Structure formats: structure tokens, C-alpha cells
Amino acid sequence: MATLRLVLGDQLRDDISALQGINKETDFVLMAEVNAEASYVKHHKKKIAFLFSAMRHFARSLRDDGYNVTYIDYDHKHNKGALFKQVQWFCEKHAVDDVVVTHPGEHRLLQDMQAWQDTLDKPVEIRADNRFLVSQDFFADWAEGKKQYRMEFFYREVRKKTGYLMEAGEPAGGKWNYDSQNREPMPKNHSVPDPTTFKPDDETQAVIDLVAKHFDDHFGSLENFHFAVTRNDALVVLNEFIEQRLPDFGQYQDAMVTGEPWMFHSHISFYLNCGLLRVEEVVEQAIIAYDSGQAPLNSVEGFVRQVIGWREYIRGFYWYFMPDLASQNALQATRKLPELFWTADTDMFCLQQCVQETKDNAYAHHIQRLMVLGNFLLLSGVDPKWVNEWYLIVYADAYEWVEMPNVSSMILYADDGMLASKPYAASGSYINKMSDYCKNCHYSVKEKTGTQACPFNYLYWHFIDRHKEKLQDNPRMAMIYRTLSKMDPKQVQHMLEDADAFLSKLDANEKV
Ligand code: FAD
Ligand code: DLZ
Ligand code: SF4
Fold it and tell me: N or C, where is the chain less crowded by C-beta within 10 Å?
């Protein structure tokens, strides 16, 4: 009896469910760098280089542990270009009785895998994905019967279930959430530690060359590749975060600074999402830092909330609402994606910074993704289809299970409020408060109308005005609509005209 165990590029851990119970003598492990996965959207070059290199290093570590691994690299003469074809090829060459895979992170691939059994004419077992703390059923049980699905309440259930940051059944420090202490802008001259970086080894360099050759037309830069590609190096990233950044993480979680893409964030999403790091070890290290007095509770709780709250919730949300989530567009947004999202060619300094850093690093931190890039796409009414595609392409941590709820539900309100109690819409003043971007900008954040006015200002009121019918009865929007009704109608008219003119320029692909 021989089982073929397929390991995908984002399942790089030796306890992944597909490998559990393996017989090293008789079973096969298959991993493959395939064009279908690398180009179903034109992923950032660094994302492909990162995953291919991490896959190669992981395959080597499995071989060192005595597993019988077949690794099909991109230029392999038997590379079949797609996961199923590779599995089929393998089954034709070897005496395979059945196939075992771990549930993939994207709905399109799950659907594909569900059809493999019939075509292969042998059993294909799709095992639950054990890269998360709680199961899809845990989310479904929690969500059942609810009309609104707020992360905060889900998070409390996960805290209770796991006991993380719980003291005698109560939340540590007496409160579930310390977010009110986590909204500070960065003071001048407060220095940010350098991110943890690694020089590419020969294998990584070979992959970088391969990506440069085969994926030249993909978005993003391959320069200064410095990601960890092994579990050991990913653990170094985690340890240095805990020591150097976690104490300030909470306070400056929402802050943005020119030329500082990495801030006090952890930079572990790449590794958590491809399996090199495990949720439990990440959370437990942060809690040890709190227990030993190395990091304050607002930082540790804030970080733990991101990992066991947001990340687990987003994953549960995706599978609970797919496939409907993919086509939702509650605000009926139809605009195409502005070209500046590919080029960074804009006079809007905040956007220029965030797009350029995304191009350079395949990374932007949460507030850049949410309140600069996402906010602009929401206010401009860009079609969720194009926004989802962009976010899936550009970040090295992006897989649809995590990208789509963040995009469709969190930034675009496309799900009509199932995730967020109101749209995350903001004018330039929010960006001005949380960053130093505005002082370097061609536009003036203080002005609301006219050629020098910050586009976020008039786009914000255009958004509020055009969605009045849908949003005015939302209690959390009541104050905004009261403010709108009290504003000078002439000024409102002027802002709406400026916004229309701006959006026409955007559509005509003129520089804004
Ligand atoms: P930190 O700020 O240090 O946070 C710690 C960890 O918490 C992250 O590594 C991540 O695993 C988790 N986390 C925090 N917020 C979220 C969230 N909203 N959803 C899920 N996990 C979260 N994250 C991805 O991993 N992949 C994506 O494709 C992705 N797309 C996003 C798109 C948009 C529009 C927005 C607003 C957010 C998106 N996020 C995504 C969430 C978040 O921005 C990133 O997880 C974070 O920026 C990664 O950097 P970090 O590891 O330094 O995170
Ligand atoms: C993202 C990605 C890329 C770029 N390449 C591969 C690959 O060549 N082989 C592979 O097994 N997986 C790859 N992946 C990750 C898959 O796309 C991922 O497993 C699915 O999107 C489900 O999350
Ligand atoms: Fe961005 Fe407006 Fe500030 Fe310029 S003025 S950086 S466009 S928020």
C-alpha cells in the first residue's frame, strides 16, 4: 500500500495533516513548482521567489529526515505545469494506491481537488488544514444564526477556548481589548529597528534568477530579496520581533512614517501563511514576553488579537461565506483599478509611498493596506474584482483565504456590513494624524476644495453623499450624515464637483 502525499507551497511544515501517519518506507511526497499556481494571477516576483525557495529548502529538510520526496522544479523536464497534471503524471509512473492532500487555502483549488478522485480513479483524501488554531466548524458554530459577525466576540471565544491571556477565567488585566492605547502616531526622532534580513544562499539566488527569467512581466522588484526561507530563519524573525519590536508594537500599530515600511510590525505573515511558523509558538512567545515583564499588556494583547483574533476569524469568515463572497459588491462599485496602483506615479504622497513600498518589498503594513490604499479604492468606487486581484498579486503573504475577506469585506464593504459595522472610510485628516506623509505632499490636507485640496477630503464627502440611501440609517454613520446636512450646500456642491473631476482624470489615466 503506497500513498502519495502532495504538499503545497503554503503548507511547509512537517506536521502538516497531509504528512501525518506517513510510512517513510512506502509512501511518496510530491512537491512541484507549477506555472498554474505561479501565474493564475501575476504574483509579485518576490512572492514567487520566496515560495519557490522556501519549498526547495523544506523539501531538502524532509529528505534529510528520510522522506521519499519527489520535487519538480520549474525547469524540470517532467514539469506538467499544474498540480493535478503533476499528480496524474506521478500516479502513472508509480504504484500509488491513494492520494492525501491538506485542504488548500483557496476555494478554486478546493473545487479542483474535489474532482481529482474521479479523474484519477483512486481515493483522494482532503484532510483538514491544521495550520490554524481553530477549525472551520468552530467558526461555523459561532456564526450560526448571527446577523452580524464581529471579530471582537469571536476573538473572546478563541481566548476562552485556548486560555491565552486568561487569568482564572477572566481576561488578563481585566479587559479583553486594549486598542484604545494603540493609536499613537510616531513621535519625531523615535527610531525604528532595522528589519531582520537574510542574504540569499545559492538556492535562493538560483530561484531569484529563475523568477527574473520566467516572470519578468510580473509586478514588483526582485532587488534586495531578504526574506527567511527556512523555519530556523523564520524563528529568528519571530525572536527579534519579540525582543526588539513587540514592546512598541501596540502603541505604534497604526502609525505610518515616510521611508519606514516595516515599523514595529512583526513581518511574520509570510511565514505563518506558508507554514514555516506556527500560530501557537508565535502567541506563546509574545505571552512569555508579557509574563516576564519584557513587553506591556497593550502590545501583547494587541498582537495576540491580530494572530488569534483577526487571522483565525478571517479564515473562518472566508470559508463560511465562500463562494458568495467572491461576487459581492454591495456598494455597486464599477471603476477599473487606477494605473497608479501599478506604477506609483502620483502626486498623492501617501499613495506614492505605499504603492512604491509594496512594489519594492511585497509588503505594506496593515494601516497602509487599510487606511491609505484601501481607503482610496473604497472612496473611488473601484470594482472589488480588480481590487481583490491587485491585493492577491502584490503581497508575499497573500492567499485568497486571507486576502479576500480583508479586501471585499474590510476595505470595500462589499458584503454589506457582515464583517464591519461601517465602512472604513476616512478623509485626509486621518492620514495626517497617523503619518508624516502630508507634509511631503503636493496637496494640502487642510484644504477641502480647489486644485490644491487633498483628494481624500472631497472623495470622502463624495462617497458619503453617493451612498446616503444605503448608509444613512446605520447608527454608526448618523453623526456623519448630521454633519453633512449642516454643511454649507455650496461647499458640498464644490467638493462633489472636485471629486467628479478627479475621478474623471483617474478614469482617463491622467496623473493625479
Ligand atoms: P503584524 O501587524 O505584525 O500582525 C501580526 C499578525 O497578525 C500578522 O502577521 C497576521 O498573521 C495577523 N493579522 C493581522 N491583521 C490581520 C488581518 N486583518 N487578517 C489576517 N491576519 C491578520 N494579511 C495576510 O496575511 N495576507 C493578505 O493577503 C492580507 N491582505 C490584506 C489586505 C487588506 C486590504 C488589509 C487591510 C489587510 C490585509 N492583511 C493580509 C492583514 C494584515 O495587513 C497583514 O497580515 C499584516 O500587514 C502582515 O504584516 P505583519 O506580519 O508585520 O503583521
Ligand atoms: C502561491 C504559490 C505559487 C506562486 N506557486 C506554487 C507552486 O508552484 N506550487 C505549489 O504547490 N503552490 C504554489 N503556491 C501556493 C498555492 O497557490 C496555494 O497552495 C494555493 O493558492 C492555496 O492556498
Ligand atoms: Fe495623502 Fe492628502 Fe496627505 Fe497628500 S495631503 S499625503 S494625498 S492624505
Answer: N
The reply to whether 461 falls in a domain is: yes
Residue 350 pLDDT: 98
Q: Is the peptide bond before 323 cis (omega within 30 degrees of 0)?
A: yes
CATH number at residue 364: 1.10.579.10
pLDDT at 182: 80
Please report the pLDDT score of residue 179 as a whole number: 85
Indicate the pTM of the whole model: 0.97
3-state secondary structure of 345: coil
Q: Separation of 158 CA from ligand 3 center, angstroms?
A: 38
Going from the Cα of 403 to the center of ligand 1, the distance in angstroms, rounded, reads 9
Q: Are 317 and 401 in contact (CB under 8 A)?
A: no
For ligand 3, what atom is nearest to the CA of residue 454?
A: 2
**Residue 512 falls within a domain, yes or no?**
no
User: Ligand 1 within 6 A of 192 CB?
Assistant: no
Distance between Cα 325 and ligand 2 center (Å): 21
Directed axis angle between helix 478-486 and helix 455-466, to 10°?
110
Please report the atom of ligand 3 found closest to the CA of residue 349: 6
**Ligand number, closest to the Cα atom of 182:** 1
**Among the three residues 79, 107, 127, which one is the final residue of a domain in this structure?**
127
Closest CA to 83 of 105, 57, 112: 112
345 shares its domain with 457:
yes
Give the strands of the sheet with 28-32, arranged side by side. Answer: 69-72, 28-32, 3-6, 98-102, 124-127
Instruction: Verify that 382 and 430 share a domain, yes or no.
Output: yes
pLDDT value of residue 180: 84
- Whether ligand 1 lies within 6 angstroms of the CB of 406 is answered as yes
Which of 89, 105, 127 represents a domain boundary (last residue)? 127
Rounded to 5°, the CA angle 314-320-325 comes to 80
Q: Is 403 in the pocket of ligand 1 (CB under 6 A)?
A: yes
Ligand 1 geometric centre to CA of 490 (Å):
41
**pLDDT of res. 274:** 98
Dist. CA 7 → ligand 3 center (Å):
45
Alpha helices by DSSP H, listed for 65-120, are 83-93, 107-114, 116-120
The answer to whether position 49 is within a domain reads yes
Q: Could you say which residues of the chain have pLDDT below 50?
A: none
Closest CA relative to residue 29, chosen from 42, 10, 14, 50: 14
Give residue 355 CA to ligand 2 midpoint distance, Å: 24
Average pLDDT score over the chain? 97
For residue 374, the CA-to-ligand 2 centroid distance in Å is 25
User: What pLDDT is stored for residue 183 in this prediction?
Assistant: 82
Task: Answer whether residue 334 is part of any domain.
Answer: no
335: CB partners within 8 A, 6+ apart: 380, 381, 382, 383, 503, 506, 507
104 lines ligand 2 (CB under 6 A): yes
Atom 22 of ligand 1, nearest CA residue? 311
Same domain, 168 and 268: yes
Q: Range of 92's domain?
A: 3-127
